[in-house]
Amino acid sequence: MRQELQIGKMMVAVAFVATALVSGCAKNVPLRTESTTSGIRAAEEAGATKVPQASLHLQLAREELELARGLAAKGEKEEAASMLLRAEADAELALALSHEDAQRVEAQTALERVRQLRKDNQ
Predict the structure, then answer these.
(1) What is the C-alpha R_g of the chain?
(2) Which stretches within the chain are classed as H helix?
(3) CB 64 within 8 A of CB 92
(4) How many C-beta atoms surround the C-beta of residue 1 within 10 A?
(5) Of 91, 97, 109, 111, whose CB is crowded by the most CB atoms within 10 A?
(6) Cβ atoms of residues 39 and 33 within 8 Å
(7) For residues 57 and 116, what is the distance between their CA atoms, to the nearest angstrom?
(8) What is the C-alpha to C-alpha distance for residues 24 and 77, in angstroms, rounded to an integer?
(9) Separation between Cα atoms, residue 60 and residue 68, nearest integer Å
């Protein structure tokens, strides 16, 4: 009986130490910024800097990414993760706005060609 009590205490101690280790490791998990940085890069490559609305959201994404890194460095993981999501969303919006602008320009060019063809064939 005494031996069972000691084993029980030892199991509780092991569980406590394991819990402390796991929670300590969870706090030191690095912020995963790869998705956000690749989203920012994609928006840049799509020409977001040349489209006013896209450029605004691209800048917001960059600033939010830096804020997320700063929050993570301070140990504010939840706030950092939230800010990282905002940065990702702004990067995606910048990319979408860039694509929309490129498609608009392409459509305008096609319309101009059609008008010119109609004019030439009259």
Answers:
(1) 27
(2) 2-27, 34-45, 52-73, 77-120
(3) no
(4) 5
(5) 91
(6) no
(7) 36
(8) 13
(9) 12
Nearest to 55 by CA among 86, 105, 101: 101
Residue 77 CA to residue 28 CA, distance in Å, equals 9
What phi and psi, each to the nearest 5 degrees, are found at residue 28? -95, 10
Question: ∠86-89-93 over CA atoms, to 5°?
Answer: 140
C-alpha–C-alpha distance, residues 40 and 29, integer Å: 23
The structure tokens 């796991």 sit at 22
pLDDT given at position 122: 84
Q: Give me the residue label for tokens 């990319």.
A: 95
Give the single-character DSSP code of 110.
H
Residue with tokens 């301070």: 74
Digitized pLDDT (tens) for each residue of the chain, 122 residues in all: 555 545 545 444 444 444 444 444 445 567 899 999 999 999 999 999 999 999 999 999 999 999 999 999 999 999 999 999 999 999 999 999 999 999 999 999 999 999 999 999 98
